[in-house]
Write a structure and sequence with these properties.
It is a single chain. This protein is mainly α. The protein folds into three domains: 73-181; 182-246, no CATH class; 248-347. Helix content is 73%, strand content 0%. The chain has helices spanning 2-25, 29-71, 75-90, 97-110, 113-125, 131-147, 150-160, 171-181, 188-197, 205-214, 218-225, 233-242, 252-256, 265-278, 281-291, 299-312, 314-323, 332-344. Helix 16 (299-312) crosses helix 17 (314-323). The longest helix is centred in the N-terminal third of the chain and has 43 residues, at 29-71.
Length: 347
């Protein structure tokens, strides 16, 4: 009996030991699954978040596109709104700002030639100098400038080149529209073409020349310089003055090339003034080089140029401090003047 009890006890203990060994050596499927799920949670959540964000973005894009499609005018409605706006401005009636915004949005998206031709027709029929017609001209050209597309700009420039502007109150507003379009370098060729084609007494030649200068490359420098000695009084003056609006430092060598004996006195003077007004280090450096070759008789001209250059930018003072002593001057009085002006500041 004792032997039987001992055997049963040993079997039970052994069985338990095997069970314990089995459980400790081989994790249960349930425990392992839980651990795997727990470790996978961050990746799953990150994945889900990314998908949710992507879904939201797509949803927003669809909403935006849907809104654009929904709010975009059709051609008939756009033509109707344009006609109403132009009629209202002519008749001194209130402008519907919401309709105006919708029309601008439509024209920027479509460049609808039908609407453009309506505007052109109204402009061509306008009697410039008449108060109501001047209002129509101001508004129509401002509208084209606000669209700011290539086609709208072509129509704008075609009209401002017309001959009859005498007595018009629209000139000031039109000049502001020209200045706005001048911010876009893509229209430089249109400014240049219009300047060439307009008559000398056109009231916009100064603004057109300035617009050419603001976005000038070497070609535009040559173009403006070609008018300096022109028999066309207003265009010559406009081109000369516009050269002072060039601020691109890379053009210094090209402008400096006109400061030579092969250029007329007027061209040399224009090039020097352009460098003085540029407000760039290299421009001031070019002035120092030129000044080093000048006789005492040029001292007044040197003073005038450096008075401008020093007032435009601290770059001129830096150029003088770094380069004045590396130049050999034909006249020491000229050198001393430049140093004095740099140290004391401009008058």
């Amino acid at each position: 009996m004792k032997k039987l009890t001992i055997i049963i006890f040993v079997v039970v203990v052994a069985t338990g030991a095997i069970g314990c060994l089995s459980m400790s050596s081989f994790p249960s499927t349930e425990t392992e699954s839980v651990q795997r799920v727990e470790s996978a949670k961050p990746a799953v959540l990150a994945n889900d978040k990314a998908k949710i964000l992507e879904s939201k973005r797509e949803g927003k894009e669809k909403d935006v596109k849907s809104n654009i499609i929904h709010t975009m005018l059709d051609a008939t409605k756009a033509l109707q709104i344009a006609n109403t706006l132009l009629s209202n401005i002519y008749n001194h009636e209130k402008i519907n700002v919401s309709d105006e915004k919708d029309l601008l949005k439509y024209l920027k998206a479509t460049n609808d030639e039908g609407v453009y031709q309506l505007i052109v027709k109204k402009l061509q029929a306008a009697d410039v100098g008449n108060e109501s017609d001047d209002r129509l001209v101001e508004y129509s050209l401002s509208l084209l400038a606000a669209v700011n597309s290539r086609r709208a700009s072509e129509l704008f420039f075609n009209f401002i080149g017309k001959e009859k502007w005498q007595g018009s109150d629209a000139i000031y507003i039109v000049n502001k529209s020209i200045s706005k379009l001048a911010r876009n370098s893509d229209y430089t060729d249109l400014f240049q073409q219009t300047f060439t084609q307009t008559l000398d007494d056109n009231p916009f030649v100064a603004e057109l020349a300035t617009a050419i200068a603001l976005n000038a490359q070497a070609e535009q420098v040559d173009y403006l310089i070609s008018y300096v000695d022109s028999s066309l009084e207003h265009k010559g003056k406009a081109a000369t003055q516009a050269m002072n609006s060039i601020h691109k430092e890379s053009l210094v060598p090209h402008i400096s090339s006109y400061i030579s004996d092969s250029s007329t006195e007027a061209v040399q003077s224009t090039a020097l003034s352009s460098l003085a007004n540029m407000g760039q280090y290299e421009a001031a450096s070019a002035l120092i080089t030129w000044s080093s070759q000048q006789p005492k008789g040029s001292i007044k001209q040197v003073e005038k140029l450096f008075n401008i250059a020093l007032s435009r930018s601290p770059s001129a003072k830096r150029a003088i401090e770094k380069e004045i002593n590396s130049q050999e001057f034909a006249n020491e009085n000229v050198k001393e003047l430049i140093i004095k002006m740099s140290n004391e500041g401009v008058n």
